[in-house]
Amino acid sequence: MADQVKLSKNDRIHVWWRSTFLQGSWNYERMQNGGWAYSLIPALKKLYTTKEDRAAALKRHLEFFNTHPYLASPVIGVTLALEEERANGAPIDDVAIQGVKVGMMGPLAGVGDPVFWYTVKPIVGALAASLAMTGNILGPILYFVVWNLIRMGFMWYTQEFGYKAGSKITEDLSGGILQDITKGASILGMFILAALIERWVNVDFSPVKVSTIKQSEGAYIDWANLPSGGEGIKKALTEQQAGLSLDKYKTTTLQDNLNQLIPGLAALLLTFLCMWLLKKKVSPIVIILGLFVFGVVMHVLGVM
Amino acid sequence: MNLNAIQVILVVLVSFLAGMEGILDEFHFHQPVVACTLIGLVTGQLVPCMILGGSLQMIALGWANIGAAVAPDAALAAVASAIILVLGGQGRAGVDSAIAIAIPLAVAGLLLTIIARTLATGIVHIMDKAAEEGSFRKLDFWQWVAICMQGVRIAIPAALILAVGAGPVKAMLNAMPDWLTDGLSIGGGMVVAVGYAMVINMMASREMWPFFALGFVLAAVSEITLIGLGAIGVSLALIYLTLSKTGGSSNGGGSNTGDPVGDIIDKY
């Protein structure tokens, strides 16, 4: 066949750029279908020239579609390969194309959620947020740049992979690689989440005083007998550095006791409580509002 | 604090971008750490807004649109609370109460999202007609109408808050007593747990809990930065995957292989 229609790299770049807007017309009926058809338009335009062919192509790509927005890219790649063959006369019918789309979207969404939403986003987000909370502009910049580099690179690479592998990709992906990626992401995710709970969930019972003990002589800084002026300040600072207490009376709070046992224990228990409530189908919003109310009440009662 | 005309336009523009991203989930302009910072940038209150953004980001870490489920709306929460923070003119001191305001806003945004997604159903029906005509141009047009509708979803509430103005917003914030703002900030320290709990519920399995325990214990060592913890996590994942594979292949042929590590892993 001399007049084979081929999709150039330029066409594929256009499709890739448009797939950024995949979720733009997300709807409760057919979900990402509008954005899917929108993404494929540069390719369809090149492959089909008559009005009838174009109408048929658009209609078959307005069928139901929904997956993780970034994991749609390999499906787009495969679909491009299939459409290209079809336009060149291969016997690929609508059912086959829809079948590939539906067959791939489920397992791929199952990879995208743990990898992007539960691993990459919490890690990059927590890093950026902890910088931003100290007033460091690098936080937001880092988040934006890192996130988009990962996303754009991933989408282009997997779309090209899908296009080159054609319909074979479905078999490749059903093998071990996908499971490995999902499992690896879950391990990393669980590890980091636990660390974030320890560091960033604040449950503080400092106002509750457990005991007040009068300390023995020499265990605290003797303010009354310090030399006057700069000399005294120097002595006080040196003594404090040496581990002497500032006050004559040592107060132990409930928080101190908890920290000696397991730092972050209260945060951990709170997280488990939230998990349990969520499993009981309590809405996250109700829990969030409840925690605010709880915080205010506990503060007024002098516990937190 | 009052904003001039250019600042008002820029704020509405940032809101529009955040609204678009709320559905697209691609560039992440709607993530609080980015959205609040942008609002701060165009209004000249960069630092307080950035601190607000970082705090909200911590709360929103686990919020994600999965399947047809809609997460609490980070876009409206971020944009509107940042505008209120700017108008209130309290600087850093206003961050805690702005966080508390953000949560009900996230719920309001959730309702707006559901409305917008329902309206989009009508738009795809128009697209169906465009498809019958084989018109690429019309389909493109309606796709952009749908995207802009999502932008307007946030831009209008933002414009409304700007229209109400600094006076009422400030009065409202000043009317909040100390015990309430302090209490809310204590609550704010705890709500972060909800997002984490959502994520853990999705990922947890018996196989994964040991890694959770490791992360929790290592985090108490304050010398290890988040990047360091990330490196440890990646290494653990790689080691585990490699070991479970060698265990699997050697066990494939016979019963016990004398590979103690593989056996231990197989037991999990």
UniProtKB/TrEMBL annotation, chain A:
InterPro entries found in the cross-reference section: GatZ_KbaZ_carbometab (IPR050303), PTS_IID_man (IPR004704)
Keywords, comma-separated and alphabetical: Membrane, Transmembrane, Transmembrane helix
Keyword Zinc: no
Transmembrane segments: 123-146, 258-278, 284-303
Protein name, UniProt field: PTS system mannose/fructose/sorbose family transporter subunit IID
Automatic annotation (TrEMBL), chain B:
Localization: Cell membrane
Membrane topology listed for this record: Multi-pass membrane protein
Protein's UniProt keywords contain Transport: yes
Record key words, sorted: Cell membrane, Membrane, Phosphotransferase system, Sugar transport, Transmembrane, Transmembrane helix, Transport
InterPro entries named among the record's database cross-references: GatZ_KbaZ_carbometab, PTS_IIC_man
Pfam families in the record: EII-Sor
Sequence intervals crossing the membrane: 32-54, 66-87, 99-120, 141-164, 184-204, 211-241
Keyword Nucleus part of the UniProt annotation: no
Name this protein carries in UniProt: PTS mannose/fructose/sorbose transporter subunit IIC
